[in-house]
Amino acid sequence: MFQPPHRHKEKGVVVCKISNQYPERNMREIVHLQAGQCGNQIGAKFWEVISDEHGIDPTGTYHGDSDLQLDRINVTTMRLQPGTMDSVRSGPFGQIFRPDNFVFGQSGAGNNWAKGHYTEGAELVDSVLDVVRKEAESCDCLQGFQLTHSLGGGTGSGMGTLLISKIREEYPDRIMNTFSVVPSPKVSDTVVEPYNATLSVHQLVENTDETFCIDNEALYDICFRTLKLTTPSYGDLNHLVSATMSGVTTASGSLAAQC
Q: What is the C-alpha separation between 175 and 27, in angstroms, rounded?
């Protein structure tokens, strides 16, 4: 089932909920989070793909003849700067996101893991957790959480791993799954990305049940060799990631979203 989602302040996270579409079965929801610029861009593309697969138009309206297709998505987005959030809101499927599930600040982490984990991100994490609790409490049978983020930046790596550890403390018996974009030496413009990734990996090992590592270099290779794209854009790469995420989440049954 899918009910059109409805949008918090801006340092950087979006929260959504994915639900099994069959009401006669035990409803199992996944709370979806997007952290940082990379995580929010991938997440926005993911919801475009999911909506298209399930007959949802950009306004959140379902087009079809099955009531079973109508359920709920809940998305929480977070970022330390408002820019990416604004682009998500103004994107083709921006209307499906609830305004109160956007959490952001006014200063970025500056590609600094420590700022995202201990200072700027730590100031925002309680606001994000409030949104997460709200979505978790609205679930009939919470299955777990999934996060899209980058390990190379400051918000996605630092604040993303902080959020994971906090959620693990509050929901130790729920599944924690991440889609983590790993820095690649050939597709990188920031010298500190390897350090941010190294600091993040320990947190992922300690606090996640599944981590899908995404390599931009490998995505470019797929675009060149398989899809025959001469100049692949980040949108093309994000679409590849979204297709993978869609395949992973199909195990939950046909999806619903309340963003």
A: 15
The answer for residues whose C-beta is within 8 angstroms of residue 211's C-beta and 6 or more apart is 177, 178, 180, 204
Contact 107, 120 (CB under 8 A): yes
Q: What is the mean pLDDT of residues 144-170?
A: 95
Statement: residue 213 has pLDDT above 90: yes
Phi and psi angles of residue 61, each rounded to the nearest 5 degrees, phi first? -90, 135
Q: How many folded domains does the chain comprise?
A: 1
CB 200 within 8 A of CB 150: no
Report if pTM > 0.90. no
> What pLDDT shows up at residue 70?
44
**More confident of the two residues 8 and 19:** 19
Q: In this structure, how many other beta carbons lie within 10 angstroms of the beta carbon of residue 209?
A: 12
Beta-strand runs (E) in the chain: 2-3, 11-20, 29-35, 71-72, 75-79, 102-104, 142-150, 175-182, 210-215, 255-258
Write phi, then psi, for 213 (nearest 5 degrees).
Answer: -85, 125
The tokens for 11 are 């340092």
Q: What pLDDT was estimated at residue 74? A: 55
Q: Which domain holds residue 34?
A: 2-258
What's the length of the chain? 259
pLDDT score for 201: 96
